[in-house]
Amino acid sequence: MQGKTEWLTGNDFRRMILGAYQTFMREHEHINSLNVFPVPDGDTGTNMLLTLRAVAQAVKEAPEVGIGPLSKRAADSAIMGARGNSGVILSQIFRGIARGLAGKDQATSSEVGKAFQYGVLYAYRAVSKPVEGTILTVAKGIAKGAHRAVRDGLDFMDVLSEAIKAGEVELKKTPDLLPILKSAGVVDAGGKGLIVFLSGCLEGLSGESSGPEANFDSNLRVASLEYTGVDITHPYCTEFLVKHCSLNTADVRKQLLPMGDSLVVAAGSDVMKVHIHTARPGVVLESAMSWGTLHDIKIDNMADQHQQRHEFLDVVPGHNQVAIISVAAGQGLADIMKQMGAATVIMGGQTMNPPVEDFIDAVHRGNSEKYIILPNNKNILLAVGQAQKLLGNRVEIVPTTNVPQGLAALMAFDANLSIQDNMVRMTARSKEVKAAAVTMAVRDSVVNGHTVAAGKYIGVQDSKVIVDADDVGAALRSMVEFLLDDEDEVVSLYYGASLPKEEAQVLADDLAVHLPAVQIELYLGGQPHYDFIISIE
Amino acid sequence: MSQIHIVVDSIGQVPDEMLAGHPNLHVVALKVRVGDQEWRENEISTKELFHISQETKQHPKTSQPAPGDFIEVCQPLIKAGKEIIIISVSGGLSGTAEGARSVANMIGGKKIHVIDSGTASVGMVQMAKTALEMALANCSAKDIIDRLETMVKATHTFLIPDTLEYLYKGGRIGGASALFGSILQIRPLLYLVDGRVAVMDKVRTKQRVVNRMLDELQKYQNLEYIGIGHIDVPEEGEALRVRIQEMYPKTLILPAKIGSVLGAHLGPGLLGLVFQEKI
Predict the structure, then answer these.
(1) Hey, is A350 helix, strand or coil?
(2) B189 interaction partners in chain A (CB closer than 8 Å)
(3) Which of A46, A91, A159, A471 is packed most tightly, with the most Cβ within 10 A?
(4) Could you report the predicted ipTM of this complex, rounded to two decimals?
(5) CB of B178 within 8 Å of any CB in chain A?
């Protein structure tokens, strides 16, 4: 940073805007990823970028030279080009700035600082119910920082640096103010965008804008759809200050650029702030130490943040009133039940009936007030009844006698409803599904008057052998055809541990050819004994 | 001519005849884009949009009107001394209401009022219709707003998406987020609570989810109208209409048109209802 900027001209303003736009081109996808939804909705970065693009384009081509008229043009183009909430708020900031600079050909540092404060004020006013923990909290921090710096008579680059610093302090607090951010493990995206905007202004003003000429081509990279997660090639977010730096920002940038990405170098009067994502933070710091003294060093492994974020998402709300304990034989079934909201899945089934204490354990280990148990097998009903006697009114039972019933009941479960309402819904729903299974006969038996030899395949419903065939596919088909009514739409097949996936798929495809009127779905059940558990709805 | 003008955003899908017949009625468009191409809501059909989205393998994105789009419509009216009521799509789904409010702050002072409909489509059209009738009868803006707010509370929205992918990718999945990507194919019945998407129930088959929706509908017997919407499944929409008409032979049944912006968040194959209890 050489010398003080006494007066800011239209040209300086232009450089700030173009710098901000270029910085946004680099950073918008990162901002997109700061999303409270566990989904790649992430439009904040793109919306702010598109808004800034409209501004940058207008400002670049504007015939005006004075800072006042130019800022007016910026505001007008922002208002027309604003995208999304964040874009609208950004457009208000431009309006405020234009208001502060109205009629001026050039402006002092303090005047521009005040104009930025106007901008923040306008942003605040734009939102009918300001919520703390959002872009507005950050904007307020920025305004305060700028106000202090203006009061202290700093030059404008320092005003911007101070404003950014104060904004960052507030940005870090956003997760504490908004629980939704905390549970997603992110800071507010709009707030981050605002800081990127100011950092870009600073870079533009100090002539440090990196990259190619601002390009307005329409082949802008819009946020990718898939959640990209952390760039694992540069996992360490490294930030530090260099005091009494012997290099200027351009040289610092040149040296650091090959070491990582998301590089931001911002200079105050005698402090340079560096932010970089790198694989080798040691090398970065080592280089920086030869330029000056290092301060406020901060290194985060972003993979941790990423991990944390995902762990947060997995947390099931702790203080449920009602939770489900379900029983399954087979990992595939257990996974499906867990995913559908069962708090605990106890392994067990036809030949491995779980003991009473498993249920008592599950209740004692859990953190819900009450439980609904789905036994999913006739042989387990007794044990569950026993558990209920011991646990008293903390436990209710939906007496499901097979897996399809259990899944149907589970699907009707709503953690927000009372245990009584859930019992009614779940019991009713469990009765709407038809269930059967296909397995191999382990001994000779008599079915409908004829003998079925051991080794043949049989279709079983309610412990009764209904059909038999020489191979599993034929037994499956006869069993499904036996059960199928005109109103049925979906046949779900859960294939057992003994059946390879490919074979199960071939059998399911074959069934689909024979039964074009229904939808055949195949899922891994992983249960022993039964080649297929069949559910028809 | 009344001093009160009504502005509806394009999610309402105000019919052309209605717009042509009411000089006091105006529409401000939301936008939808795929990659670098952008359209105003009515410049592209849902069908075309999904086609382009599939061809380019890019998910459609939408954005609320820029403040300037509202200003273009409202500024001249304000200058001419008119009062404006903006009826927006549910604020739980879009920032349009918020954007409209900031425009009101910018240019309107107390002359621009924003009503968050808490719904979409024909729900908004019916509110606009009521507002226009009351304006013609020389009711005050305050009376109209009170009436609209009562309508907002009495209006309900049910949704049966064919896939959750669009709600998910658009970030509008709300309370249904836990269902997305589940191992089992699930058909949820969704509804809007305080304008946001929530799960009413979940079942395995389309037939059953439609039945569930009609069961829920039947809890309301005294209805002003029932709007029926679909996205590119006219036969299913018609079958639903026939069933509902039988259940409610005396109730006004209306089509609930769904444009490309709303469509981009709900996805093809959707069935939906918007209905209002009698006030």
Answers:
(1) coil
(2) none
(3) A91
(4) 0.77
(5) yes
